[in-house]
């Protein structure tokens, strides 16, 4: 039986958009994500998928329910423990890359590893391996401004995997990519999940990609309304 990397239990979240009454966004989400599996979240805009990813990624601590990461209840963890878990165990990919503009592609991937205590030579080797997997090793010395949008997103993908996270969270990671680049990034992602045994939770509007993942869940009106293996 696969080890459970992420368990969400009865997750509830409300937002106050300047009104007197809070608006419920998530209404009791239960989700389990085992090691080595890729799960897609499909949802209409505003259904709460980004909110759910933020809670799963320990970026939001104002919610009801429990978030368990590798068996540990992180909903009761202090700020230092949550920060350490984000740095060591969780990788994030967003629709927009958020690369550091003053550093090269290589440095953007090396820096998180150095912050995590990885020796510099080892960090460089890991970064170059990841860049090669997504076809941009020849752009390693270029800063983000000198890269195309697709190249920037591939570098961001590599950065998310730099510290070999147990859990990868992605919010529309191929939303700004052309079909060929999207396929390359997705194939690299699936290959690394299989090799490393990490778990991945990916929000996407691309139903073709979702169909190729291990499982698809639908989030609608704050609830998981349908599941498909």
From TrEMBL:
Keywords recorded for this protein, A-Z: ATP-binding, Cell inner membrane, Cell membrane, Lipoprotein, Membrane, Nucleotide-binding, Transport
UniProt-listed GO biological process terms: lipoprotein localization to outer membrane; protein localization to outer membrane
Domain of life: Bacteria
Coiled-coil ranges per UniProt: none
Database matches in Pfam families: ABC_tran (PF00005)
GO molecular function: ATP binding; ATP hydrolysis activity; transmembrane transporter activity
Domain ABC transporter: 6-229
InterPro entries: AAA+_ATPase, ABC_transporter-like_ATP-bd, ABC_transporter-like_CS, ABC_transpr_LolD-like, MacB-like_ATP-bd, P-loop_NTPase
GO cellular component: membrane protein complex; plasma membrane
Family: Belongs to the ABC transporter superfamily. Macrolide exporter (TC 3.A.1.122) family.
PANTHER family recorded: IMPORT ATP-BINDING PROTEIN, LIPOPROTEIN-RELEASING SYSTEM ATP-BINDING PROTEIN LOLD
Record-given protein name: Lipoprotein-releasing system ATP-binding protein LolD
Top-level taxonomy: Bacteria, Pseudomonadati, Pseudomonadota, Alphaproteobacteria, Rhodobacterales
């Amino acid at each position: 039986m696969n080890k459970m990397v992420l368990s969400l239990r009865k997750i509830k979240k409300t937002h106050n958009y300047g009104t007197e009454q809070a608006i419920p966004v998530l209404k009791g989400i239960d989700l389990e994500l085992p090691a080595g599996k890729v799960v897609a979240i499909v949802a209409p805009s505003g259904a709460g998928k980004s909110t759910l990813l933020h809670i799963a990624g320990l970026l939001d601590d104002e919610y009801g329910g429990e978030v368990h990461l590798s068996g540990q209840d992180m909903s009761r963890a202090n700020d230092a423990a949550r920060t350490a878990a984000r740095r060591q165990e969780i990788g994030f990919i967003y629709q927009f890359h958020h690369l550091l503009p003053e550093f090269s592609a290589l440095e953007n991937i090396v820096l998180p590893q150095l912050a995590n205590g990885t020796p510099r030579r080892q960090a460089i080797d890991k970064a170059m391996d990841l860049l090669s997997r997504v076809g941009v090793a020849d752009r390693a010395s270029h800063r983000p401004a000198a890269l195309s949008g697709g190249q920037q997103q591939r570098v961001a993908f590599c950065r998310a995997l730099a510290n070999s996270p147990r859990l990868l969270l992605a919010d529309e990671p191929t939303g700004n990519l052309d079909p060929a680049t999207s396929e390359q990034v997705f194939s690299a992602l699936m290959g690394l999940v299989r090799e490393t045994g990490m778990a991945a939770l990916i929000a996407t509007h691309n139903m073709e990609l979702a169909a190729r993942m291990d499982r698809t869940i639908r989030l609608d009106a704050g609830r998981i309304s349908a599941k498909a293996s």
